[in-house]
Structure formats: structure tokens, C-alpha cells
């Protein structure tokens, strides 16, 4: 076995779900403490500090750079995971994927409906209906890794598939409902460049010559990716969509002479940066909610809608959707799992941190008080969901530790 250098060992550590989640949680805690400390003025000044070329309309605040720029790296990885699942994973077989897909849809629709039902008297607040739809993959998988050491592997696969479908839904919601005035020329050019990006992934013609070139591929791909991101941002579509699109265009098959696919290589290289920088900095810039008016937050139907949607809506939508699917179709629950496991996992899906905070920023950018209350609702709901899911999943993990988890062979025989 080849011993890894310090840099490679650190990178491998950062690729672990638990480590990524710890960094995300730590950054959020720092933001909360900082925003509610005597140094809160420095925190606000840092978030509002503007940097970037104004000629390209990129003179953005650090908070916006974190949400639009750094988060695009995270969404690139999400796009790559989606591509992997569609081509090689659970989403390749519609019948096997039906249960988590329907559960994910239920976990998006029910929270949104609960939010709307609690805000029907406030038409100006209804724009936040997308906030409780999203499940935070990084947080949820991190908590599952920490508390579910003895849980069946199929539960993580279920959660990952569900969260990926959930993120795809959230991405579509952002693109369709939370896009500002659309500028078609930069969007068209971005689509053309995305076509070039996809073509270069195919390994034919110019793409093959690029692979044979002595220049490293990143010399071409990085400027191209930056140009696509800038154009999508200029078009009015939220710039993180560029990351998703490029992730899904990555080639996932291995050509002759390659030891890994470009998709796997890019995801492997970028994940430590996403875990160590992109997600923590986004959390640091976005999670600084001032809780001095916490009483008024609980009186705000927006915050209540977010909390009820994430904590109750996710549980009802995911568990109910999965159960109804088994009753109304030929889909079956994986034989290594029980409905209690799915219930605990459904509660875990109520952690709506990264994408929920992003949608909050988009929905209430012009309403400061509502924005702070909605962010507070996301954080309190995520904390509540984490505690409840941890209690259930620790008990289930202890159960499987005592009685054993069915083997992969048993799972295959019964699938």
C-alpha cells in the first residue's frame, strides 16, 4: 500500500460526509455567535463588503459571492452525482428508483403546501413557499454517518437518492420561480458554451486532441467554466445553475487509456474544496441570524411555515409518499429496511440548510425582517429535525448492532 502524503490524507478526510458536516455546522455556529455578539457590526460589514469588476456587473458583496460563486462548486458536485445516479446508480432503473423518487416528491410538495396554508393571509410572504422543500445533503449524510454506524447501507442509498431528486427539484424551482429579469443574449451564449463544454467531454475530434495535448485540461476547462458562470449570472438565472449543468455534462464512462472517468476525477478533486471552503464560507456568510427578536420570529407566519414545513412536512411527505407507493404500485421497500428506519430518515431530511438558506435569500432579499425570521426558522427547524432524527436513528442503530444487519447477498436475493 502506498502511503499518502499529508495533503492527500487531508483531502481524503475532507471527502468524508461526517467531516464535511462538522465544518458546515462549525461555520454556522460561528456565524450565529458572531452575529449576536458585540462584534456584530464587523460581521455585517464583512458580509456587505463589495468586491469585483463593475464592468461585468460582478461588483458583488461577499455574501453574494458565497451564494452565487462558491456555492456553484457545491452544485457542480450535485450535478455530477445526479449524472452518476442517472447513468450508473439507483435512478438508472425506474422501478428500483420509484420509492425514493416519489418519497422525494412528497417531501417537496407537502412542506410547500403547509407553508402556503400558514401564509394565505399574507400574499407578500408566499414567495417563500420553496424554502422548506430542500434537504441539505451534506448535513443529512453527515448526521447519518455519525449516528448510524450499524444501520443498513440501503438507508444511506435511499437518503442519497431522495436528496439528489430533492436537489434537482430545488434547482428547477430556483431556475423557474426565483429567477430575476431574464436577459436572453448572455443566456444563449452560455448555452452555446455549455454545448462546447459537453462536446469536449466526448473524447472525439478537438476533444481527443485536447486530451493528447501537453497542456493540462484545466487550462481549457477552468476559463470555459468561469465564462459560463459569468454569462449565466449576467442572464438573470441564478448562477449556481451553471454548476449543476456542467456537472451533469461531465462524461461518466471510462475511455481506453483512462483509469477513471472525467466526472469521477473532477468530483474527486473538487469535493475537498467544497467541504473545506465553499460550504463553510457560505454558511458563515448566510447563517448569521440575529436572535434578539426571537419572540417576534415565533409570531411570524413565515418562520412558522418554514419550521412546520421542514419538521412536519418532510416527515409526512416522505414517509407517507413512500408508504402509499408500496400500496398503490409494485414498488417495495428494501428488505433490509423497516418503516421505522424510513421514519427516522424522513425526519433527517428536515435538515434544510444550504439550499433552504439560498432560496430564503432569493425570496426575501428586499424584506430584511422577514429574511431574518425565515433564516431563523430554517436554523431552528434543522436543529429540531437533527435532534429528533438522531434519537430515532441511534435507537435503530443499536437495534441493528444487537441483531445484525442483513447481508448484501440477502438484499440481492430479495430485490
Automatic annotation (TrEMBL):
Main localization category: membrane
Membrane topology qualifier: Multi-pass membrane protein
GO molecular function: sodium:proton antiporter activity
Location in the cell: Cell inner membrane; Cell membrane
Reaction catalysis annotation: Na(+)(in) + 2 H(+)(out) = Na(+)(out) + 2 H(+)(in)
Residue ranges crossing the lipid bilayer per the database entry: 21-42, 101-120, 126-147, 159-178, 184-201, 213-231, 275-298, 304-325, 337-364, 376-394
Biological processes per GO annotation: regulation of pH
Keywords in alphabetical order: Antiport, Cell membrane, Ion transport, Membrane, Sodium, Sodium transport, Transmembrane, Transmembrane helix, Transport
GO cellular component: plasma membrane
Name of a matching Pfam family: Na_H_antiport_1
Role noted for this protein: Na(+)/H(+) antiporter that extrudes sodium in exchange for external protons.
Family: Belongs to the NhaA Na(+)/H(+) (TC 2.A.33) antiporter family.
Name of protein: Na(+)/H(+) antiporter NhaA
Gene source species: Haloactinospora alba
